[in-house]
Amino acid sequence: MNLLYAYRYGIVGGVSTQLLLRQQAMQQQGHRCDLFFSQDNGLRAVLPLQQGVYFGADHSYRSLLRQGGYDHVVVIDTPELLAQSFPAWWQPPRKVWLDVHTTTANGLAYLNHLDAGRLAGVMVPTRYSASLVAKRLSGVTPHVLPNVLDHGVFSLPPEHEGEDSAADVRHFIWVGKLDAHKNWRLALIYARLLKDLFGSVQLTMVGGYTAPAETGEALFELAGTLELLGSLRWIDRIDNQALAALYRLCGRSGGAMLVTSRDESFGMAAAEALMCGCPLITNDLLVFREVFPDSDMIKRVDIWQPEQFEQAAKALLAGPDQEACRHMYEHLSSTYGPGAFMAALNAALEA
User: Fold this and answer.
1) How many structural domains comprise the chain?
2) Does residue 162 sit within a domain?
3) Residues contacting residue 99 through CB under 8 Å, at least 6 positions apart
């Protein structure tokens, strides 16, 4: 099988990282899988030298399609690439699929103008996303293909690792784009609440490499107003090994990941944190009830109710329950491993 994934944003994390994991899963089973990104938003700099990852403008994409000999082309939420993906009558046939990962109203708006009849099918990462797509594409039943989690990198720490390194400081982490959808301002406001509650805290915010300069300035301005500058670290991009280490630090210090998002299509960062033994204090998102099992590691709140957030924070243990951590890791690594993805992909392509 020769398959091409095409996406607009070559970012560190998010959908781009998911595509790299899917590429690896396909290659491990002897298939060819290439990736094309029409923008390089920092991804190229952190990739090792490897075959099958391309960046470029429209003419580069058309050239790759002509020369690639792909059986399937899967375009993720990029209408301008989707329009160029269908073969001309004189070209060898290929099946063109749409993969929908966005959940925002603005992000999904392109579906209202889509001719789904030309597609081989539509793919989504969760049943929740399938319901959003089905409302906009009449008569279409999306195929649910679970995301792949890197359970080798995002794994539990050895017992007793670094027990004394986080003494007296509770570490918290927030991961995402610096935008209204991810709700970064609310994360800072709740960091102030955590500081009032626990005294010594550290919040690490990860993401925002593509954010405009004024957004970064606004972040530190708000942090200053909240008297958090001494408790805040912002990392605009990070490799997975370092990110996993931060998750483990948060877990063993009695901290958590804060999820203030208004919505998610899956929750990759949240899943990765849980696999490292880091609990969540999270907005009670419908998709998280689908993706994650019930667990004391997940504190679900109405993110707009500060008293609920405070009660969830008070319920955090000094360190996570090891049995709960092991159960969560085993569930996520099996449910969202390469094998589960490949089984769903093969079923979709053969349907």
Assistant:
1) 2
2) no
3) 5, 74, 75, 76, 77, 122, 123, 124, 145
Contact 119, 297 (CB under 8 A): no
Query: What is the CATH number for 73?
Result: 3.40.50.2000
* Structural domain contains residue 51: yes
Contacts within 8 Å (CB) and 24+ apart, 296-301: 296/321, 296/324, 297/321, 297/324, 297/325, 297/328, 298/274, 299/256
CA end-to-end span of the chain, whole Å? 15
The predicted model scores a pTM of 0.92
- Residue 291 falls within a domain, yes or no? yes
Q: Is the dihedral of CA 186, 192, 194, 200 positive or negative?
A: positive
Mean pLDDT by 10 residues, the chain (351 residues): 95 90 96 96 80 92 94 97 93 95 94 94 97 94 97 87 66 94 95 96 92 93 96 92 96 96 94 97 97 96 97 88 94 95 96 83
Element (H, E) at 5: strand 2-10
Instruction: Answer whether residue 267 is part of any domain.
Output: yes
Is 297 found in the same domain as 255? yes
Residue 47 exposed, middle or buried by CB count within 10 Å (0-12, 13-18, 19+): middle
